[in-house]
Structures are given as structure tokens and as C-alpha cells.
Design a protein that fits this description.
Blueprint lengths: L5 H17 L5 H10 L1 H4 L17 H5 L4 H7 L5 E3 L2 E3 L11 H13 L10 H11 L1
Antiparallel strand pairs: 1-2
Length: about 130
């Protein structure tokens, strides 16, 4: 039996480590952005904070307002909204530091986390949303 060359062995080792490092969780950057910018108010499980902060998990508002989500995240929201039949009027601060790729990753995480199944957005769709809300 012939041993693989050191170059081949190194390549195989890198592939194994890369696959192990990726894990099975999609939207890792989106989850990290959520943890950093959103979790304090919307909670780790997306359930919100009582009658003050709306849920994102199984949220009818998130599902039906997909064309506005990038604008809401970037610029915040001061309007009264109704989510799953509950009225919320706490303003939400925007996160102006997120670029379009980060916004797309965050939105895709929100759209798939906690049992949500609200589709996917592209960076181009996020760009078009942001142009429309300025």
C-alpha cells in the first residue's frame, strides 16, 4: 500500500477541518449579527419582550412585511405595529452600520430561525429595499 504524498494528506486534512468548522447551521453570520444587534430586545429565542418588544419567531408582521425589513433594520421604526394580534408602540433603533450583505444574511437568518419559513432575500433585493426607503 502506498501512502499519500504530504501535499495530498494536507489537502484532505484541510477539507475535513473545513467541513467540521462549518457545522450544519446555516446563516451563521446572520445569527451572529442577530446576537450582537437584536437579541437584547427580541431575545435569543425570538419571542420578544412581553408587550414592549414584538416577537420575530412565528411573526405575522415579519412574514407579511418582507419588502420593508431591510429598511426597518437599517433605519429603525417609530410607528405603532400589530404583531400576531398584539399592538406594539415602542420605537426600534436602527442599525446603520450593517452593509447590504450583512443585512441580507441577518434577514435570511430571521426568515428561517425559530420555525419561520419566510423565504430568502438576495443582496440585490436588500439594495432595492434600501433605495426605496430613503
Amino acid at each position: 500500500m502506498r501512502l499519500a504524498s504530504s501535499g495530498t494528506f494536507f489537502l484532505l486534512l484541510c477539507l475535513v477541518l473545513f467541513n467540521m468548522g462549518c457545522g450544519n447551521e446555516p446563516f451563521t453570520q446572520g445569527k451572529n449579527l442577530y446576537t450582537t444587534h437584536c437579541e437584547n430586545c427580541h431575545m435569543a429565542n425570538g419571542t420578544g419582550l412581553g408587550g414592549n418588544i414584538p416577537p420575530l419567531a412565528q411573526s405575522d408582521y415579519l412574514q407579511t412585511q418582507q419588502q420593508k425589513i431591510a429598511c426597518i433594520i437599517r433605519y429603525g421604526q417609530a410607528d405603532t405595529i400589530v404583531v400576531n394580534g398584539v399592538t406594539y408602540n415602542e420605537p426600534m433603533a436602527g442599525v446603520k452600520t450593517l452593509n447590504e450583505v450583512q443585512l441580507a444574511n441577518l434577514i435570511n437568518y430571521l426568515n428561517q430561525a425559530w420555525g419561520n419559513d419566510y423565504g430568502f432575500v438576495t443582496v440585490e433585493q436588500v439594495h432595492q429595499q434600501l433605495v426605496g426607503c430613503k
